[in-house]
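Project outcomes to date are best conveyed with an example. Our students and postdoctoral researchers have been running inverse folding experiments weekly, and each run begins with a structure described purely in C-alpha cells. The record below, which covers 606 residues, was selected by the lab manager from last quarter's runs and is presented without edits.
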C-alpha cells in the first residue's frame, strides 16, 4: 500500500527538521558501539565486581562470550501495574540460559502512581519522575556489562522515562516488556457516575471507595485507556514489543510465553550476530510518526503530546504539535475505549485490539510498514494476535471484521473521519485539546471566565454553587515551571456535573488532564505557561473566553489595547513539603510542554 500523501509529507517535515540532530545521534550510537564502554574493554577488577553477585552465571559470563542482558525494572508492589514484575527477573534468568545467554538486574527505576497522588502534593513530582526514571535507566546501563536489555515498565511516566534513558544507549538491542492490564472490574462508566454523584453530595465516601476498589481491584494496569495503556499501544506500533504483547492479562500462560519470547528476541539481536537491531535504529522518525498516528486513531492520552516529543528528542528526532494537528486531519478514529467510549481495554483486546487497528491503518497507507522492529519482520508482524496453540505461542491471522463494532472499526467505517486532537491558538497562547469524546456541539464554548490557581478552589466554588452557569474555568500556574504540571483529574467530576446540568462549560489550563480527558472540552498544556509572563496570567473573572476546536481558537475577547496594558496576576509562592523542594532545579530549567517539558533534555542540548 502506498503511503498516504499527508503521512509522507509530515514524515518528510520531521526528517528535514531532524537532519542535524539525528545525524549527531547516529554518530553517537556508532561511537558507543565501536569504542564505548563494554565488557571486553573492562579491566579485571571491574569485571570481578560485575560478576560477584551472580555465582550461578559467573562461569558462563566469564568464558562463554555470549550476550549478557541487562534487566531494568520498575517493580514495586504498591503500584498494581508494576507489582506484576515481582518474579520476572528470576524467570528471565532461567529463560536466558535456555537461549545460551545470561541476564542480570542492571537496576531499578521509580514508578509512582498518579492514581494515588491525584489532587495531592505528590502529584507535583509526577511529570519530573519521567526525567528521574530516564536518569536511573542511564545509571543502570552505564556499567558496560550488557550487550542488550529488557525494559520492564508500563505506566504513565515509566515507559517514556525508560525509553529516553535507554535511547542514550541506543547501540544496544532492547525490548519493552509489559505486564498487561488487570481483568474487568466495575465498568468505567459506572465508576464515573458514582464520582459525579459524590461530587454532588448524592453518594457517601464509603460508597465512592467501594466503587473505586471494585474498579481498581487487582494486579495489572488500570483498565481505562489512559496514559499507561496508550503507552502499550505506542510500543506495539513502534515495533518495540513482542507482537501483541500489550494487553494480555497478568498471571496467564500467554503473558508468560510473551515474556519468554522477549528474552529470545533480544538474545538474537546483538551486534555479534547476523540480525543486529539496536534500539536507536528502531526508534527513528517513521516509528515516531507511527506512534502519533495510533494515538490519534485510538483517542489516546494527551500526555503523549508531551512525552512523544521528549522520546523523539532523545533519539535526535524533532516532532511538534503541528505534526499531530496535520495527522489528526487525515487519521480516522477507529476505537472507542473509555473515556472515549464505555469499553475497557480488555474488551478492546477481545474485539481485535492493537493488531486490528494496526492492520487497518496499514491498509490505508497511514503507518510506516518498513520500520525496523524487534520482531521477526516489519510492522506487518504486529497485525496478528498471539495465542497459545499446542502449549506454544502462535500468531494466527485476525478475522476481517471487528469482534465488536461499538469498540473498534475498520478503516471503511470509522467512528470519525478525523482523529481526536486539535491545536488552539490566540491571545491566550497555544494549547491542545482532545475532542474524541467531546460532542460536536461543544467543540465551541464562549462564556465568562472564572479564574483559579488550584483545583481545590474549583471544587470549593462548585460546592458553593458559584459555577452553576455557562463558564470557562481557567486554572493557571499549573505549568511545569510553576509546580511540575500536575494532572487535574479532581476537576473532571464537577465539570462533568455542570455540563450534565445543561451549562456550556470548558476548562483552560497550563496544566494537564491526561488520558482521562473526557466529555468536557479542555484546552490544556497552554504555552507559554502563566509563570514567567504567559498570557493566562492576564485573565480576570468575567472576561469572555472563546475555546473553539472547529476554528482552532483560544482567546480572551478583550480589546487589544486593554489586553496589552493589563498587568499579570501575582504568581503563587512555590510550595514545599512532600519532596517538592528537591525538584526545584527541574522546574526552573524546564522547557515548554510542546518540546517535552524536560529540564534534563534542555540542559543536555537535545
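After processing, the design step wrote out the following sequence:
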Amino acid at each position: 500500500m502506498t503511503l498516504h500523501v499527508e503521512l509522507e509529507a509530515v514524515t518528510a517535515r520531521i526528517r528535514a527538521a531532524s537532519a542535524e540532530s539525528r545525524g549527531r545521534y547516529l554518530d553517537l550510537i556508532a561511537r558507543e558501539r565501536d569504542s564505548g564502554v563494554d565488557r571486553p574493554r573492562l579491566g579485571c577488577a571491574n569485571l570481578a565486581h560485575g560478576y560477584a553477585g551472580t555465582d550461578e552465571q559467573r562461569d558462563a559470563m566469564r568464558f562463554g562470550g555470549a550476550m549478557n542482558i541487562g534487566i531494568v525494572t520498575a517493580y514495586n508492589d504498591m503500584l498494581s501495574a508494576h507489582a506484576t514484575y515481582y518474579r520476572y527477573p528470576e524467570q528471565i534468568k532461567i529463560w536466558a540460559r535456555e537461549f545460551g545467554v545470561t541476564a542480570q538486574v542492571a537496576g531499578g527505576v521509580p514508578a509512582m502512581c498518579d492514581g494515588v497522588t491525584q489532587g495531592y502534593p505528590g502529584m507535583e513530582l509526577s511529570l519530573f519522575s519521567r526525567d528521574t526514571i530516564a536518569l536511573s535507566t542511564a545509571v543502570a546501563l552505564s556499567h558496560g556489562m550488557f550487550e542488550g536489555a529488557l525494559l520492564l515498565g508500563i505506566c504513565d511516566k515509566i515507559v517514556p522515562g525508560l525509553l529516553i534513558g535507554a535511547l542514550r544507549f541506543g547501540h544496544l538491542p532492547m525490548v519493552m516488556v509489559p505486564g498487561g492490564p488487570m481483568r474487568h472490574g466495575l465498568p468505567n462508566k459506572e465508576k464515573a457516575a458514582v464520582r459525579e454523584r459524590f461530587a454532588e453530595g448524592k453518594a457517601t465516601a464509603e460508597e465512592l471507595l467501594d466503587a473505586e476498589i471494585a474498579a481498581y481491584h487487582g494486579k495489572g494496569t488500570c483498565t481505562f485507556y489512559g496514559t499507561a495503556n496508550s503507552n502499550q499501544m505506542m510500543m506495539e506500533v513502534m515495533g518495540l514489543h513482542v507482537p501483541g504483547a500489550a494487553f494480555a492479562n497478568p498471571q496467564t500462560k500467554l503473558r508468560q510465553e510473551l515474556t519468554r519470547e522477549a528474552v529470545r528476541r533480544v538474545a538474537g539481536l546483538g551486534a555479534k550476530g547476523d540480525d543486529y537491531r539496536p534500539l536507536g535504529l528502531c526508534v527513528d522518525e517513521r516509528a515516531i510518526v507511527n506512534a502519533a498516528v495510533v494515538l490519534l486513531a485510538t483517542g489516546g492520552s494527551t500526555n503523549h503530546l508531551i512525552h512523544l516529543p521528549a522520546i523523539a528528542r532523545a533519539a535526535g528526532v524533532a516532532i511538534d504539535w503541528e505534526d499531530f494537528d496535520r495527522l489528526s486531519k487525515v487519521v480516522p478514529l477507529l476505537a472507542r475505549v473509555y473515556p472515549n467510549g464505555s469499553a475497557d481495554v480488555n474488551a478492546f483486546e477481545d474485539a481485535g485490539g492493537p493488531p486490528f487497528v494496526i492492520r487497518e491503518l496499514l491498509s490505508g497507507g497511514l503507518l510506516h510498514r518498513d520500520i525496523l522492529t524487534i520482531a521477526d519482520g516489519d510492522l506487518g508482524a504486529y497485525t496478528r494476535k498471539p495465542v497459545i496453540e499446542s502449549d506454544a505461542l502462535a500468531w494466527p491471522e485476525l478475522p476481517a471484521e471487528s469482534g465488536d463494532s461499538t469498540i473498534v472499526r475498520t478503516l471503511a467505517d470509522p467512528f470519525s473521519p478525523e482523529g481526536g486532537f486539535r491545536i488552539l491558538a490566540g491571545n491566550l497562547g497555544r494549547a491542545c485539546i482532545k475532542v474524541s469524546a467531546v460532542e460536536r456541539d461543544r467543540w465551541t464554548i464562549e462564556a465568562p471566565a472564572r479564574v483559579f490557581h488550584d483545583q481545590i478552589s474549583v471544587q470549593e466554588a462548585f460546592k458553593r454553587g458559584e459555577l452553576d452557569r455557562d463558564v470557562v474555568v481557567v486554572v493557571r500556574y499549573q505549568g511545569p515551571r510553576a509546580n511540575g504540571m500536575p494532572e487535574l483529574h479532581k476537576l473532571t467530576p464537577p465539570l462533568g456535573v455542570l455540563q450534565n446540568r445543561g451549562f456550556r462549560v470548558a476548562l483552560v489550563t497550563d496544566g494537564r488532564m491526561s488520558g482521562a480527558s473526557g466529555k468536557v472540552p479542555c484546552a490544556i498544556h497552554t504555552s507559554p505557561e502563566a509563570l514567567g509572563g504567559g498570557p493566562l496570567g492576564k485573565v480576570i473573572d468575567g472576561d469572555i473566553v472563546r475555546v473553539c476546536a472547529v476554528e482552532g481558537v483560544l482567546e480572551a475577547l478583550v480589546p487589544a489595547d486593554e489586553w496589552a496594558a493589563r498587568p499579570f496576576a501575582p504568581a503563587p509562592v512555590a510550595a514545599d513539603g512532600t519532596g517538592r523542594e528537591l525538584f526545584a532545579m527541574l522546574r526552573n530549567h524546564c522547557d515548554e510542554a510542546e518540546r517535552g517539558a524536560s529540564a534534563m533534555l534542555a540542559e543536555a542540548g537535545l
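The first strand starts at residue 68 and ends at 73. The chain has 25 helices and 14 strands. The training component of this project remains on track.
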